Amino acid sequence: MTDWFLDRTYLSASGEVRWATLGDPTLPPVVLLHGTPFSSYVWRAVARALAQDHQVFVWDMPGYGASHKSRGQDVSLAAQARVFTELLAHWGLERPQVVAHDFGGCVALRACLLHGARYERLALVDPVALAPWGSPAYRLLGGDAEVFSRLPGALHRALVTEYVSSASRPGLRPEVLERLVDPWCGEEGQAAFYRQIEQNDQRFTDEIQGRYGELELPVLICWGADDTWIPSDRGRELAALIPGAELRLIAGAGHLVQEDAPAELTAALSRHVRTAP
User: Fold this and answer.
1) Which of 31, 35, 63 is nearest to 46 (CA)?
2) 225 and which of 48, 125, 249, 273 could share a cystine (Cβ 3.0–4.6 Å)?
3) Model pTM?
4) Alpha-carbon Rg of the chain, whole angstroms?
5) CA-based angle 5:167:47, to the nearest 5?
């Protein structure tokens, strides 16, 4: 557990957020956003690589990873976007470059389009951005969150393990899979897992989907060509809605591109964040 540790805290409206920085603080800032049911841990390899030329900010959203989890906590996409906007102000970042995966994409887009956050550049990796979204399994878990939260611990762990595993095309290494599953186990983690699914639905992208044409910044969209959670065709649809957006499909990668093809993803992101606007 010492290979990835968030050593700083910020008290947000949705609870304590754990965060960290990598790289020289005099270098241009890049902020990484994770998705669900993941944490900043999935960005570890990319973050360390980008930190050669940038100050990289990583954080676990409230209700995820090492950050605060509690009964009644608001961990919706709306809340996460507000927290992200708060964090940018806390960090003193006026126009950072932003890289966002999965529902982190929705969080970054909401912060920009609804809360006035400004970015130098934006990269979206297999983002939750277009309706419809949410697999049948995701909707089932969210619709019966109270029931699933009472599953025996071993059965719950098996369910989460299978669910997380399905995000990878070639398969996750056992130690990585365990690290991604662990935060969702135990009494607190199990309740948090179903809470975050229950609170998120399509209305949070519906509120912004019609405004993607307003984005006036360089946007890179990376997509795992073998993503079974959100098919790569959605990447083409999204790129068509954002003026000047560039789409890169990454062969052999599923939804969790950071684990499936870290070198290819890092190369694409490095070119994007190093290019002068």
Assistant:
1) 31
2) 249
3) 0.96
4) 17
5) 35
pLDDT tens digits, residue range 110-148? 999 999 999 999 999 999 999 998 777 787 887 888 888
pLDDT of 1 reads 45
Separation of alpha carbons 231 and 210, rounded Å: 20
Identify the band that residue 201 occupies on the pLDDT scale cut at 50, 70 and 90.
confident
Decide if pLDDT at 71 tops 70. Answer: yes
145 CB-contact burial (10 Å; exposed 0-12 / middle 13-18 / buried 19+): middle
**21: left (phi > 0), else alpha (psi -120 to 50), else beta?**
beta
Q: Is there a contact between 181 and 167 (Cβ–Cβ < 8 Å)?
A: no
Amino acid occupying residue 240: A
